[in-house]
Amino acid sequence: MSLRGVRSFHPAVMLLYYVVIIIGFMLSQHPIFLMVGVGFLLCTQFLFDKGRQLKSWLGMILTLAAFILILTPIFNRRGNHILFYLFENQVMLEAVIQGIMIAFTLVGILLAFISLNQIITQDRFLYIFARISPQWALLSMLAVRFVPLLKRRLMEIEEIQKVRGFSVTKGSLKERVKNGMLFLQALLTGSLEQSIQTADSMSARGYGQQKRSHYQAFPMKKQDAYALLFILITGCLMIFGWWLEDSVLSLLPVLETTKLEQRECLFLANWALLLAFPVWAEGKEVAKWKYYLQKI
Amino acid sequence: MARSKKVLLILSFTLLLLLCCFPLVINKHYMLVSLLIMGVSFIPFMYRFSKQKLTSRELVMLAILGSIAAVSRVPFASLPSVQPTTFVIIAAALVLGPQSGFVIGVLAAIVSNLFLGQGPWTPWQMYAWGMIGLMAGLLRNTLFMKQMLGRCIYGFLIGFLFGWFMNLWFVVSMINQISWKEILLYYSASFYFDLAHAISNVVFLLLFSNAWIKIIKRFKTKYGLFE
């Protein structure tokens, strides 16, 4: 399968990109910055798969956001602007803004993780991992490989035990828990014995004889170098903006207006540029596709 | 080797303490600081294992135990918040020691997150399960852990501590000025789940820890692993 769009970039570059984005969400505590960030990430989601992946997470994200939006103003009483009274407790404007910012930060981070999971799939994740620590990566790969095998074995055990009248879905809670554990115990005993075969086969093929080499699945290309440069420059600018406190809305002691000054607009543009990277990479492909379709 | 291990342990426990106390001192950027502290206390153990020479049998055994811990959720999918992952990690650590307990805990977190999707909770989960294995392994030769009662107490406490620790990723990301009232509220929201986890740990340890320890120990002696 040939790769296109964001997925054609080197996984390490994309991982760095998402680390920078997540740091950006944590540092840029300004409603406009955060909203722009969430907007771009939503765009990215729609370009990836028309928001299908997003839908399965939507419930959790909205619950968390609502939780924060409601609770922060109730508990946070620091501020100078009273909005209204709720059960004789004052609700502060500062606290409401704070709640909005925290909610957007969290939503942004979760959205970043959703698209991270789509771009850096299991194999890519293990590839990056293998470069950092071969031993851990080998161990994780072995374990990942065992999961489907163990699930299959567990299913077999369940089928067999069902015939004997043991089940995890029927009976009292105590019986179900006990049966479930007995199945796992059978799985443990069987799998440990069988694992010796796997291990001996590994030894026979030369594990531990000499240093392992690894297959270079993802070579660095020219476009990766450009992307890396882009991420580093915009990322540094983003951190610089935070350091100057241009991308931070100060709530206390005095509430700053949410309107942006000139210099702040520059940093917002930089932040938007950083966020637009996957949108550009994916959107380019979509535009090309539409263009060629029209030509036919 | 023994001395460096002790230094390592003291170091990471101080850092863990720091992690729990820093909100009282620093009142900005909890998320960043907590991730930083966690990383620093975590990496020595990760590094130590990555430099260790293991035979293929030991490696595969660790992998099997890690993936059994991750898969063990499957038969209990119909029972909410009952999952024996923690139990499997404790049982394995009690036989194989702190290093292997740590590795199995971290591995279980990595594997289950690779299948369920990474999230901001991934590092917290790795840390929590890794430390559960490490602690159980450290205490394995004490009188406390040799008795069933001690094991059950450990399982109960760990059930709550795990839940509280896993709440942290959420709490530190959302509270800019920590107040005890808020923290209590968030933690009471998760009380039922933590209680279920703690009780299921106790039940599993009570009913099955002897059998599991026997199985793993027998296997270890039979093939002369982790000598």
Could you name the key traits of this structure?
heterodimer; A: 296 residues; mainly alpha; 2 domains; 2 strands; extended; B: mainly alpha; Arp2/3 complex 21 kDa subunit ARPC3; 81% helix; 0% strand; globular
Describe the structure.
The complex is a heterodimer of chains A (296) and B (227). Chain A folds into two domains: 183 residues, no CATH class; 70 residues. Chain A has nine helices and two strands; from the N terminus they run αααββαααααα. Chain A has a two-stranded antiparallel sheet. In chain A, a hairpin with a 2-residue loop joins strand 1 and strand 2. In chain A, helix 8 packs antiparallel against helix 9. The relative contact order of chain A is 0.15. The model of chain A has no long low-confidence stretch (mean pLDDT 85). With 227 residues, chain B is mostly helical. Chain B has one domain: Orthogonal Bundle (Arp2/3 complex 21 kDa subunit ARPC3). The relative contact order of chain B is 0.12. The longest helix of chain B has 33 residues. Chain B is globular and about 55 Å long. At the A-B interface, helix 1, helix 3, helix 4, helix 6 and helix 7 of A face helix 2, helix 3, helix 5, helix 8 and helix 9 of B.
